[in-house]
Every structure is written in C-alpha cells, then in structure tokens.
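quick one before i forget lol
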Amino acid sequence: MGSIPQLSIVKGQHRDLKSQRLSKIFEVNLTSWSTNTAMIYNCPRTSKQNQITYEDLNAKSNRIARAIIRESAQRFLKPNQDNDSIIAVCMEPTDKLVMILLSIWKSGAAYLPLEPSFPTNRIHHILNESKPLMVICDDIVDTTIFQKTHTLRISDLLHKASTMDDNNLSDCKLLPFSNKDLAIVLYTSGSTGIPKGVRIPHAVILNRLTWQWEQFPYMAEESIGVFKTALTFVDSVSEIWGPLLYGMSILVIPKVITKDPERLVEYLEKYKIRRLVLVPTLLRSLLLYLGMNKNQQLLYDLKYWICSGEPLSITLAKSFYEYFQEGHHTLFNFYGSTEVMGDVTYFICENRNQLANFDRIPIGIPINNTIIYLLDQDYRPVKNGEIGEIFVAGYNLAAGYVNGRDEHRFIENPLAVDSKYSKLYRTGDFGSLNNGYLMYEGRTDSQIKIRGHRVDLSEIEKNLLRLEYIEKAVVLCYHAGEIDQAILAFVKLDDDSKPRTGLHIESALKDALPTYMIPQVIIIDKVPLLVNGKVDRQALLKSYENANNNEDSEIIIDYDYSDVPESLQIIAEDLFETVGSVIGRSTRTTLSVKSNFYELGGNSLNSIYTVTKLREKGYFIGISEFIGAKNLGEILKKISKGNVIEMEEDDVGSTLNLKAYPLRHEDREIVIEIITESFYEKADLEQWLKPDILPSDYYDILTAVWGPLVEKGLSFIVKNGDTNETIAAALNFDARDEPAVEVNNKMVIIFDFLEYLEGPIRDNYLPKGLNKILHSFMMGTDQKLSAQENIVCMHFMESEVLKLAKSKKFAGIFTTNTSPLTQQLGGDVYGYKTLLDYQVNKYVHSDGWRPFAKAPDSQRAIVHWKAISDEGRI
C-alpha cells in the first residue's frame, strides 16, 4: 500500500483566550505598576524630556475619554454604517499621541490613524467611507482637509478634559449604541485603486500580544520598549501595547530620529533597548551604518531583531551574523498582513549554520490559535512541498473591511472542524510547506511591500490613468528591497496631448498618493507586447536597466558646476559623481549645489551607502550631517572644511606621520594579526566561504611564506611615527620567484581563483624573467584606524610600493583587487591599467563547484598592471 500524502495544513498551539477590551486590561494591571514610568519622550525641537507614570497616564486618559464622550453627545454624533464608533487621529508620534489612543479605547471607540503627510484626496476618501465621529489632530494641522468631519485640536481637547473626573469609566458610561469590540481601523492600499479599511477587534490584538509574551517574553534586564513605527502601519500596535500592557516603559521616538540611522542608534544605545521591530530595508540601513563603526560594537545589547513587513533575504540574514554574535543575538522573520494583525507565522534564526539549510528564509510556523492552509484554486489543500495560496484561520483574523468591502477576501472555511476556525482570510500570497516550515512563494496579484507598507501597483496605475493625457500606464517594481529599489511607471501619452515630462506627472500624483507610492515616471513611445498580446514587462524593466546604470552602459546625468567655487571644483566632482552613481537610476534632473539628495531619488538606505562611498574616496561626513543637509551645496561645504584627505604624493602620510620599515622576522605576529583581521573580516571573496575558513588559516599560510617574505626584501610594515605602533603591512613578491606553498584548507579556493585570473596574463602578456614584475600580494591595515586614516594608510603604502618598484628597477606592479575601494583607488587614483574585469560568481573551481555563486553580479575581481618603465608598457 502507498503512504497517505501529507497535506499542507499547519496548526499553531491552542491557547484559551478570554476576550477583553485592552483598556480594561490596562486598568486591571495598574495596581501592579502604578508608579512605574509608562512613557518617555524627548522633544526634538526643545530637547525637553517628558516622562509619565502609569498612574498619571491612566488618570489623564480617563479625563480625555470623558471629554470625547461629552463632545459626541453634545453634537449628536452617531456610529457609522458598520455600527462602529471610530475616532480618527492625525498626530505626529509623541507622548500625547499614545495618551489619546488609550483615551479613545476608554471611551468605547476605535482609533483610525491618519498620516499628516497623506494627500488630501486620500484623507477625504478615508473620512467619507469610514465616517468617524470626529478627528483629533495636532495644533499645527490645517483642519480644512477634514471637510465636514467634526475636528478637535489636541490643545482644545486637553482643555475640555482638564475639569473632568479622572476615575475609570464603567461600561454604562461609554459611547452608546456602537460595537465596543472594535479597537483599530487601518487603511491599506487596494487593488481597485481605492484604499480600504481593515477592522481589527480587541480580541485579535490580544491573541497576537499573548503569543508574543509567551513565546518571546521580556527579559529580566529589559525595561524599555520602542515605539518608532508609523501609526498607520500594523507593527505599531505591538510596539505600543506590548510593553504598556506588561508594565514596561515605551520610548516614543520622533520621525526625525527614525529616519536618521545615526541618531536612531544613539537612542537605542542610550536607553539599552533589547528588542527592535523593523522592516528589512531599515535593517539593511542599520547594518551599513554599524559596519562603518564596527570597532565600537554598537547595539550589542539589542538581542532580539524582529523583521516583518517585507521578505527577509538570506543575504541580509548572513550580513546580520557577520556583525552580531551567534548565540547572543537572534534574528526573527515574521509574516502576515494588516488583515491578520500583522503576524501569523514566525521563524527564528539563531546562527549562520541554520541558513545553510535554506535557499530562502522561511516564514516559519503559525502563532497560537492559528491555522495556515495552502489551497489550490478549488480550495483543496495541496500536497506537502507543492505551492498553494496561503489562507489563514483563527483568532488573528480581522473583522472584515469598512463598509463590507471585498467580502471575497474573508470566506467561510469549508475545512473547519472547530467553530473558532470557521472563517478564512485569503492572503493573495503563494506558499509551500517544506520540512515543517512555510516558505513564501510570491504574490498572486500586483501587491508589493515598500518600507513595510503594502502597495498595490494597480492602485498607482489607476491613478495614472485618471490623468486625461495618459493613454496607457504600466507600473512595475524594480529590485524590491534592494538599495536601488524603485517603483516604475511606464507611461504612453495621448497622441493629442501636449508634451509632458515624467516629473510633471509625478507631481500630479502627489495629490492622490502618499509619498512612498509615488513612482518614477518614464515616458515611452509604445508599449512592448508579447506574442499573446500581453504587456512585455521584462522588456520594460530591461529597457530601464539598459538606459541607466547597468554593467554595459554609463549613467547619463547632467552635472551643473556653475555655482561651485573653483577651489572646491575637484571635491564637487567627486561628490556629484558619487551621488549620481548611487542614485543614477532615480535621477531625472541636473545635479547642482541646489539639488536635494532625497528629491533626486535618494532614501535613508542609499544615503548611508553614499556616505560610505564618499569615505572610501577620502571624504568624511557624518550620517546625520548628510541626511540633514538641505542640498548638495551644504554637503559640499561640510566635507570641504578640513575633512578631506588630500591625495597629492607629497602630502601622503602627513596626517598620521607614517613611516615605512623593511619587514623583519620579529614583525611576524603583528603583521599576521593585521593581515588576518583585514582579510578575514573585510575581504570580499572570503565572505562566501565562511564558516569553512578560519582566522588560523591565514596564520598557517603566512607562517609558511614568512621566511621568503623577509629574505626577498620586497615587503614592509608601516608605523605611526608618533606612537611607534605598527598599523599596516604590505607583502610583495617577485611574480616569477614566489615560494611554493601547500595549502591544506579552504583558502586554497582563493589561491586557485587568483591563479586562474592572474596566471594567463602573467605568463602570456607581462615581461619575462626575474626582477620584472613586482606582485603586490597583500595589503592590510589595523582595524582600529578610522575610515579617513585607512585611506591615508592605503595611499602611503601605494606610494611606498611604487618607490620600492622603481628603486629595484621592476618593469611594473601587478595586483588583483577584489575590494571596491582598492579597485577605485587603483584605476582612478593610482593609474593602474585594467587587464581583466571578472564577475566572480561565474568562477567554476576545478572540482566543478562554484564557490562564489551567491555573490551578486556586481561583485568583480580586477587584475591591474602599472607600468614603471618602457619595458612594462603592454
């Protein structure tokens, strides 16, 4: 008999759950921690810190709740068509915002967040559909955008509440005639082109939080949580109420801090934050920043890193464990959507070895009181390993959409045995089940995630087609989640319309779409079609790539240096070209001193990348300074005020008082340490071989060649003349007199690869005989050096190698560079000629293995040659 096929149905742990309004739980728990600090908020404008205890928060929220109830009664405000009493909130994140949210719950209403930056049309739609009782807004908000909806400024509401009773309200005193189970309404992007509101009850939030408290309990040393996510995003719910219903403090982080990785890290360090919820895009930004400051071991107290909102790539997970310590720091991958309270499955990643078992990060297993079904188009479970659409049943399901929209997303569960699983939510995602873990397999429709926000590309498309001069529009996402991510709108104009630019159309969309949904508009003459008549989407993406920054074409950007002082011209060229190279695909206008980085197409992720590239060129500017600059002219002034590392040969080494000394036997330990740290921690090839290579492998190899290195007299160390400390080393050989070394570890892959690149060139194109080719074998600098000092040291060593080669009468210098920094310095600064530019992921080892297969196409190995004499010219 054959075995019964396993079906793709996965059930989370069952836990009894007593449904309660969360404001009641807050009040019941109050006796245990009434004097504890509930909230901490530092005003970015005044630097004043506000703290409020649980007791004070409860009392003030009771007064505000009574003021809300009285205002509603006096104005005869009624529930909406769903019998929901909703109060819209349009406020920036502060301590007052959280107080208002708790007050709304205490009044018996649900809160509906409105982002102050939302386009007016979007706000009008949300208010017209959800029909809230009122809007509570910051004092500075223009209340005319709320039209006829009753509006209260926060100062007016607090004044009305000041004379109210501060005791807890009994149920009979709450807002009458409405559904008291509803807690929050969150609006998301809709496939019909119209945003839709998700109705989330108290019980759904409680199930999600109870699972969190049980599965990932707060640590003994964990006293402060972080509220930093936009209120319109579902992850804000667990950020706020997870700690506040558990007796902890929450640190309310203003938007201006959240957008600045440098200041955000300062906050997280200062308050010893132990867990952080973030989208993978922000994780990538933070890792880039942390990598620039690795010696400081920043955020090593932050143990739980919880990713959600976007797919988490395996490359990013590996990068996480290149910085953080395995066993001490844990990376989580949560999966879900607003309709299922943000998270319904989870995967725990504790070390790099786990990642070796997957080609993608799993979305994991279901949370408590949840069942995940993978179904075919006839709603039948697929077999284990097959791909099916993800359906969710259980306590985490929302109560549908406002006004009963899209009923087909919430359906009866034909497979239910237990009544609590009687409803199914159709996610629109595909998944598979492998070895007990759920794997994400993509979307069934046009939805993507941008910085955690769900964006339906069809909504953007429909808004474009509402512009009368657009005949056809195709909206696609390029490299979602990557540094060069972009939403692209390929637009064909009506033949009778007057000429328009992409920027003009983008500006027109700002009245209908939030900023994160505005696409880069590309005007096209015709829409490419497949043989079946459908739009050739790949052809459009390819045309975009070819027209911009791919391997085979240059970025075409206009640079305007007319307002740059002559003394800053060289620095300006480096700055503008760096910015252009990083955001070249997004740049649709001339770069000048008046250009704003973010208006050009920059974002927080590629701003860090830009700062890194500038540091590699020798220019130092802080992340906060870069982000805060109003235009490139301001950045130019900052990096020109004594922060530039001069590249003239006469000045090389002057900053650090560097001195070179021939390599000696007694230098062995310090040189091996410097080389090992430089290559094991930072080398571009070795990262793909970890954990199969070890620091001790470098020790073994360098020890084997140490004698010849010293005896040949072609290598040297670099010391800081002020401290006499060895801070760098350059190891060189005569390319035709290198010692034979038997390599008995995985480092043999590196040596085989380099020989594969260099051997044919050395043997067939370079001068023959001894004392002709100086092979610059390895250069390393002390990891304690700053980015500036590292550049100075690299310049100094290159100058010394050149002097050495000339004094020994070599024909030229031969080297292979795998680091973008040394590649750039070699080609652009030191005048090396490129003999071979090789894409490393194409390399096939002699045993048929592709050791660097996971490297991106952009990772290159460049074989360089610098001729010194006429004999060396090739």
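fyi The radius of gyration is 31 Å.
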